[in-house]
Design goal:
- 2 copies of one chain form a homodimer.
- Chain A is mainly α.
- The first copy, chain A, has 12 helices and 5 strands.
- Chain A is 65% helix and 5% strand.
- In chain A, the strands form 2 sheets. In chain A, strands 3-5-4 form a 3-stranded antiparallel beta sheet. A two-stranded antiparallel ribbon of chain A has the order 1-2.
- In chain A, strand 1 and strand 2 form a beta hairpin.
- Chain A binds a DNA duplex through helix 1, helix 3 and helix 6.
- Chains A, B: This is Transcriptional regulator, GntR family.
Chain lengths: 296, 296
DNA sequence: AAAATGTTCTTTATTAGTAAAGAACCGAAT
DNA sequence: ATTCGGTTCTTTACTAATAAAGAACATTTT
């Protein structure tokens, strides 16, 4: 056997979502146009069209591609089947590590992990290699992978590194004359106010906004090494949020308010205040991260 | 087929080097002791002993392992065969990239690279994945690896990041009360003086000493993220040294003298001077790196 | 002539199978 | 009794084979 057609299935689902915006009798664009839309090759587009014709959604004769009926929920492939294996592996791996609360020192076997996560072995391998620099796992030459555990020490070192790098990035942001940054800040203010206004449990959108806010800061450094570290932080912090739900609402709202303080100080150009609000925020973030570990 | 016995061959070579220190008629230690010495499993040790007996170097009967004759140069396996594939792959890959002077945008194909470097495909794969965060290569989903090239921009970003992190590490070193650090510094002074005294072309030892010196500094931060970045720097700088040989002697001696200044300021406890000498050194390092690119 | 389609050729990702290296167990010798 | 050696069992790493996905070329239609 070979690979599992994830690209094809993802293509079908994207195509179905597009077809839902049309009316029966409408014509689809050219294969090349669809390839652009589905972000894939024409080869895959043709496979998708053939599939759509087979299930009777469209009539396909040469360059005529006519929509017969609107897509039905059952036409879609289930989400996991239509996710790229790399993304799937990462999601499931992190969730597994967090949920099963494995003890530090646990040995991870590629084949075993692959079976547990239901993803191909090479993907697990790639994932583990990519993850090693994060410091959560380690490999002994010619031996196996071991879990290092999310210790207080780890959290402290991460927070230290973050303070150093994000602090520098923020300093550059303040020094920058780029109007684009102010525009992004204004947009951030809007989004923060909007999220704070919603009293409900819509805090599920918080991690994404939090990551976006910090990405704006890191981006100001215009340095690929900064950006890379930002990604790591957001990954670890994101899964930390997912894991530690206690006081979530209170904690997230506090963070949003701290963000707003920083944003507003930037917008009015009060650099001293901005700097101070930023340091405060990083301190809060550090405390939250460290606290979440000791309460495990 | 399967794997290429690198561990075994490396074991044989290490064992031969050990035997060269003995006299014919001497007895070898137990299998467990040899396993400790060769840094490998007893299974491999027994394979090595069998090999040594086969080529008539030792007589092996149960627990009696008697040296028959001293090892000959021809008994050793050639170095590349006896190197762990991961190290071999890394060495050859970097050398290949630097030497063949590939244009940015060049497509790297795993199988092709594996053939060129004469290393197994999985090793190339692992190497490329590990290398991606260094920013020299990139992967497009479902497509191939492309070389980003060692640009001036890259060098600048690397130097910026280095100044930030190593600067912080050095500040912690100065603040530290740890006597171990002073001891390491004294040892560094000795090694630097020794290398500077040798007028000859023994500068081949410079990269190792340079890396060791900076490792002492990064280690003072006691932060795994600092250490990891230090590794990257040393890797890139090392290969930059190897590639750019012009003015090598002059450049290396200058660097050694700058190191000495820093070391001595630390030893006498003059923090202001140490700090200043360190900043100067980082500036020199940056200039050297950037210059080496523009002269390609 | 231009654009879209049909066809063919590469390249990549995955699985299965096999040999090397590691680990554990048990019996023998000091 | 304890250390050492023989044996067996696991686990890992590599090769090879195969199907999916991408890319290029040729052909057809407007």
């Amino acid at each position: 056997m070979s690979r599992g057609q994830q690209t094809f299935k993802l293509g079908v689902n994207t195509a179905l979502a597009h077809l839902a915006t049309l009316q029966p009798g409408d014509r689809l664009g050219s294969e090349a146009a669809l390839a652009e839309l589905l972000q894939t090759s024409r080869t895959t587009v043709r496979a998708v069209l053939k599939h759509l014709a087979d299930i009777g959604l469209i009539e396909w004769l040469g360059r005529d591609k006519i929509l017969r009926r609107l897509p039905d929920p059952v036409d879609f492939f289930p989400k996991p089947e239509a996710t790229l294996p790399a993304d799937l592996a990462e999601e499931r791996f992190l969730e597994w590590v967090m949920r099963s609360d494995l003890a530090p020192g646990t040995v991870l076997r590629e084949v075993e992990v692959a079976r547990i996560l239901s993803v191909p072995v090479p993907q697990v391998r790639e994932l583990l290699i990519r993850f090693e620099p994060n410091g959560l796992i380690e490999k002994n030459t010619h031996k196996n992978w071991v879990l290092n555990g999310f210790t207080a020490q780890f959290a402290t070192e991460l927070a230290d590194m973050r303070a150093l790098i994000e602090g520098e990035a923020f300093a550059r942001l303040l020094a920058s004359q780029d109007a684009g940054i102010l525009r992004q800040m204004a947009e951030m203010e809007r989004l923060h106010i909007a999220l704070l206004a919603r009293e409900d449990a819509a805090m599920s959108e918080f991690p994404a906004l939090d990551a976006a806010f910090h990405r704006v800061i890191f981006a100001a450094a215009q340095n690929r090494f900064f950006d890379e570290f930002a990604q790591r932080i957001s990954l670890i912090v994101h899964y930390h949020y997912q894991w530690n739900k206690c006081d979530e609402q209170v904690r997230n709202r506090a963070a949003l308010r701290e963000h707003l303080q920083i944003i507003r100080a930037c917008l009015v150009g009060d650099k001293a205040l901005a700097r101070q609000a930023f340091v405060t925020h990083l301190e809060t973030a550090r405390r939250t991260l460290v606290a979440s570990i000791s309460t495990r």
